[in-house]
Amino acid sequence: MLKLGWFSTGRGPGSRNLLKAVMDEKEKGGLDIEVPFVFCNWDNTEVPNSKKEQRQMFFDMVEGYGIPLVTESWKKFMPELRKEDEAAWGSEYGKVLREKT
Fold it and tell me: pTM for the full model?
């Protein structure tokens, strides 16, 4: 069995359709996979209402599949460091992702 960590912005139908296609294929036995988590780089609190609804639909879908959802807003993560040194910020953000997933 292959373990696949799923990374997505979850911002629209494409995100949902891709996850659904993979999970449907898994259910039919065409894929021998496990999805131990879904990661989204938004926490759904800082997005415009139009995107919030789309993202919530994705989050609900993930929950419906029983997959743990992990979020870490890139916008809220160490914004001062991001302005000062984007490479250092990326390294720190990556550390948090590895710890959470």
Answer: 0.84
